[in-house]
Backbone:
């Protein structure tokens, strides 16, 4: 890669409460205009990575103890979350986090702060409604009454209003039905194509994530254990077994699931 | 010293249980809480499990494969087998299914006692090729409710069958245990097999008790000591410390949670006797070094001074000099300021006796630990002589040697340099392998396959495996493990394989240590993603080149490593590159990395 990627994370180390080291020298790169997937099991440190990028770590008593995050050629070290958001990094948090007492449109308007308040808000809303027609129908309803899928759409819609250069998507599939997951990933893919938004996608649903991304990283215990173009990852034996489920695609019954994990070797 | 009044392990267990029934024999952590088992309880489990197996058809001489990490049930199964004059066979829980199959089939095991679903699956995968196997006894049945194979039953079920059997035959167990004979086969130990298939070494009760008596004699280990059980029980070294010595003396065994968590476990258990293999000592050393790197300048300086002064004092002491009062005062101050903390950090402050065995260790590591006040005694032995045959003792230590023979061991060095041994510890032969037996036991001498030298004071120095010695194009004989161990002292090098048979110079394949090298890279702001990526960084190459140069500085020019390549993957038991005890299988390495080797020699 000769061109500097939009986002570059170098040897990031993160410690929570001064005691628990969650990231142990993590490095990754997200080139402009691409969708990059970050996969891994619970507790691997995926969300922590995103929060480190968006500057939200101090809210959870976490701190970057080493390493560097560069966005658009500028270091993000020590910057406040709102400043990072204004520079064009917008995180869609895990578990949707919409303002439940506000209406859909009020929720969207909150995000305009990230772009400095002004601008063509009406146009921005229309764009959101274009991607998510269901939100248009419910624009005056309280967000708390939306279904889980609609709330997720709203969360992504909010990000759209902010017109970020880089969208950090944290588990958009969480708790959604397979049909909705497919719908949302379809839209994520469209946003990337049509708006040119670069996306760093954290997912447990590896199948979906790899289907929309061009490059993937697999994390374990705060480290990258494997990375590569999506096409190669999908062929990897260990990735297939641990993340894509089953060998050769046949479905497994939960009765056949093992109580142990075959030892992973990644690079053999 | 007459520690023994009975001549087999089952009889010893009976004795311990009647002598101090409520004394603590075993400790194991369950859900974070330490559980204790008394000697009486230990015997009870062994008795019921033994009778259960007998009710299920176990006869004298049958083999029982045990496939589990270290735990109480491991010992129950082993002793239960012995009590019925049957024979336990340890199988490494890290072994892939093919290797498990080889050992279970070759040993003609009729029962397999396995830890959990993972191990049971390995047996079930190949069960069609194991016609002799009657039952699979599972310690932890979690996840196995849907398994319908009628041969599967749980450890508890076998004990329940045994309890019922005992009701009908209340004297049977004692009769069987008392009928065990000292010259009978007690245990089968499959060697890890660096050069071919594993071979089953047959060990008798007499072998075991001879070993125990000599070790107790040399080391002064006593009943009040406690040990931690964490190395594979399939290996003779851990058998000595987890089974043989505790049964003979009545000391307590603590099970570590696993070999991976040994550092945390040591801090918690604080054993008084500890056996480490070189890999463990190297790891403990580098954990100290890495920790020191992270602390402030004051502590670092203090540490460096303490080590330097300590090493100096140790050198003086070992060469027969007596420390002056100032030296002693200095050491005392260092002890209070830093060494005590380091001893606590590695969990060995209470350890009276520390040992290293099973592979060659670099004298540098030994010097380091002596400097911080943890004197490690190096021993040498092999499965075929039931463990130790040479052991350093007390103040009579030469670093780089393995000390003198333990009582009862006779030895001589053959013309070609090979070490030959004789004594009560020498095994009965290899199971179902008369050719290998005849090759190893010739004219009453055990041929060790190791080349050794004796220094003028009678301390033995092991040069290398006879087969491993490299003869270069210049006709120079080189011991690769000496160089490899020197390389492995570097915290950045985890594994090294020295090459050069028939070549003009020596070279090495080196596997970096992911943890420490990764940390080094991070501190230099070098970004990397995974192991392969890290190993391919030019800066890492330079780092290792410096380490290699440093090691070369201490070697003669014929022994120096002129070229090296970094391995892009970690050597793994599953990939057949190392054995279960992490010994390198040279042949596999030569084949697998042939292109890399060709690159070196052009």
Residues:
């Amino acid at each position: 890669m000769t061109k500097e990627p939009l986002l570059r994370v170098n040897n990031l180390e993160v410690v929570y409460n001064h005691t628990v080291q969650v990231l142990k020298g993590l490095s990754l790169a997200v080139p402009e205009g691409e969708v990059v997937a970050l996969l891994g099991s619970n507790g691997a440190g995926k969300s922590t990575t995103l929060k480190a990028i968006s500057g939200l770590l101090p809210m959870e008593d976490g701190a970057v103890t080493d390493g560097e995050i560069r966005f658009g050629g500028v270091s993000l070290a020590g910057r406040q979350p709102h400043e990072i958001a204004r520079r064009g990094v917008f995180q869609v948090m895990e578990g949707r986090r919409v303002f439940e007492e506000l209406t859909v449109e009020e929720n969207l308007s909150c995000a305009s702060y990230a772009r400095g308040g002004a601008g063509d808000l009406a146009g921005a809303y229309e764009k959101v409604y274009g991607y998510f027609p269901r939100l248009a129908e419910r624009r005056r309803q309280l967000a708390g009454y939306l279904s889980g899928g609609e709330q997720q759409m709203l969360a992504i819609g909010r990000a759209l209003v902010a017109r970020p250069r880089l969208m950090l998507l944290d588990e958009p599939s969480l708790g959604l039905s397979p049909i909705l997951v497919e719908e949302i990933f379809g839209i994520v893919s469209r946003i990337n194509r049509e708006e040119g938004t670069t996306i760093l996608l954290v997912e447990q649903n590896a199948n979906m994530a790899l289907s929309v991304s061009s490059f993937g990283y697999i994390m374990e215990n705060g480290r990258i254990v494997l990375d590569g173009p999506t096409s190669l990852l999908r062929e990897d034996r260990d990735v297939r077994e641990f993340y894509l489920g089953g060998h050769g695609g046949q479905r497994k019954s939960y009765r056949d699931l093992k109580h142990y994990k075959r030892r992973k070797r990644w690079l053999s | 010293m007459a520690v023994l009044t009975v001549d087999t392990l089952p009889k010893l267990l009976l004795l311990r249980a009647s002598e101090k029934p409520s004394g603590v024999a075993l400790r194991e952590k369950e859900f974070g809480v330490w559980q204790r088992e008394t000697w009486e309880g230990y015997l009870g489990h062994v008795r019921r499990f033994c009778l259960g197996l007998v009710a299920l058809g176990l006869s004298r001489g049958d083999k029982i494969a045990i496939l589990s990490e270290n735990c109480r049930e491991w010992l129950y199964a082993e002793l239960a087998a012995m009590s019925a004059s049957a024979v336990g066979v340890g199988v490494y829980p890290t072994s892939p299914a093919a290797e498990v199959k080889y050992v279970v089939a070759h040993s003609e095991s009729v029962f397999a006692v396995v830890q959990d679903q993972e191990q049971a699956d390995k047996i079930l995968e190949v069960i069609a090729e194991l016609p002799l196997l009657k039952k699979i006894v599972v310690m932890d049945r979690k996840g196995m409710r849907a398994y319908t194979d009628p041969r599967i039953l749980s450890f508890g079920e076998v004990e329940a069958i045994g309890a019922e059997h005992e009701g009908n035959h209340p004297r049977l167990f004692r009769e069987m245990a008392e009928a065990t004979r000292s010259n009978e086969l007690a245990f089968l130990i499959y060697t890890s097999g660096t050069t071919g298939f594993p071979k089953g070494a047959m060990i008798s009760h007499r072998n075991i008790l001879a070993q125990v008596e000599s070790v107790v004699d040399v080391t002064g280990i006593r009943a009040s000591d406690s040990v931690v059980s964490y190395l594979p029980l399939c290996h003779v070294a851990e058998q000595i410390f987890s089974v043989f010595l505790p049964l003979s003396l009545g000391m307590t065994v603590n099970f570590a949670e696993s070999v991976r968590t040994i550092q945390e476990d040591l801090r918690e258990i604080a054993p008084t006797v500890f056996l480490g293999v070189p890999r463990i000592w190297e790891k403990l050393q580098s954990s100290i070094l890495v920790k020191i790197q992270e602390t402030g300048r004051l502590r670092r300086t203090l540490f460096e001074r303490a080590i330097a002064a300590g090493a100096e004092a140790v050198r003086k002491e070992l060469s027969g000099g007596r420390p002056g009062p100032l030296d002693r005062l200095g050491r005392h101050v260092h002890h209070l300021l830093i060494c005590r903390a380091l001893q606590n950090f590695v969990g060995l402050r209470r350890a009276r006796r520390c040992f290293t065995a099973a592979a060659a260790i670099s004298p540098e590591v030994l010097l380091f630990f002596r400097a911080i006040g943890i004197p490690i005694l190096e021993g040498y032995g092999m499965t075929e002589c039931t463990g130790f045959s040479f052991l350093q003792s007390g103040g009579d230590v030469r670093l780089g040697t393995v000390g003198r023979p333990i009582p009862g061991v006779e030895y001589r060095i053959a013309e070609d340099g090979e070490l030959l041994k004789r004594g009560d510890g020498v095994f009965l032969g290899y199971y179902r392998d008369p050719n290998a037996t005849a090759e190893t036991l010739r004219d009453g001498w055990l041929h060790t396959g190791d080349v050794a030298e004796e220094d003028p004071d009678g301390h033995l120095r092991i040069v290398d495996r006879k087969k491993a010695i490299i003869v270069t194009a210049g006709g120079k004989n080189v011991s690769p493990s000496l160089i490899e161990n020197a390389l492995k002292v570097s915290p950045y090098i985890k594994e090294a394989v020295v090459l050069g048979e028939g070549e003009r110079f020596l070279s090495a394949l080196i596997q970096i240590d992911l943890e420490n090298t990764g940390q080094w890279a991070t501190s230099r702001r070098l970004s990397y993603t995974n192991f392969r990526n890290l190993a391919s960084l030019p800066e890492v190459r330079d780092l290792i080149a410096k380490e290699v140069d440093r090691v070369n500085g201490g070697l003669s020019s014929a022994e120096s490593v002129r070229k090296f390549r970094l391995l892009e993957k970690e050597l793994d038991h599953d990939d057949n590159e190392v054995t279960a005890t992490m010994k390198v299988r040279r042949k596999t390495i030569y084949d697998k990395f042939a292109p890399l080797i060709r690159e070196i020699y052009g």
In short: Chain A has ten helices and ten strands. Chain A has a mean pLDDT of 86. Strands of chain A lie at 7-16, 20-30, 35-40, 62-71, 74-75, 89-92, 166-170, 198-203, 215-220, 223-229. Residues 1-88+200-251 of chain A form a domain with the Rossmann fold fold (CATH 3.40.50.300).
